[in-house]
Design a protein that fits this description.
The longest helix has 19 residues. This protein has one domain: GMP Synthetase, Chain A, domain 3. By secondary structure, the protein is α+β, with helices and mostly antiparallel strands. Helices cover 48% and strands 22% of the residues. A 3-stranded mixed β-sheet has the order 1-2-3. The chain is built from 4 helices and 3 strands, in the order αββααβα. The radius of gyration is 15 Å and the shape is globular.
């Protein structure tokens, strides 16, 4: 169970990382819509696991690999944004959130 501090930091990071992707502050070679669906922070606030939803989702693994390559750049930009609110900027780990694809598959099966 997450503490209140973890929940607040998670919401802050989700909002700011999402803003980094929507404002194109990171130069990615692939142009698609990236949304941050969830961020989970470790109890010591040292690691933040970010779950990303991609649209269109045809080259998911390539995009996640490229985002992981740029994670230090994303962390640097994030540090500039939330440096006054957090003492330490957590290490960022990016994962693919396939819950929308799963829901779409279930919807197709029910029709």
């Amino acid at each position: 169970m997450e503490s209140i501090r973890q929940q607040k930091v998670s919401r802050l990071l989700q909002r700011e990382i999402g803003e980094i992707f929507t404002k194109r502050q990171v130069t990615l070679s692939i142009n698609l819509m990236i949304s941050v669906t969830q961020v989970r922070v470790s109890p010591d606030l040292g690691i933040a696991k970010s779950y990303l939803s991609l649209f269109p989702s045809d080259k998911r693994e390539e995009v996640i690999a490229e985002i992981r390559k740029h994670s230090k750049e994303i962390r640097y930009i994030l540090g500039k944004k939330v440096g006054k609110q957090l003492r330490h900027i957590p290490d960022l780990q990016f994962y693919l959130d396939d819950s929308f694809d799963y829901a779409e598959e279930i919807d197709l099966l029910l029709k």
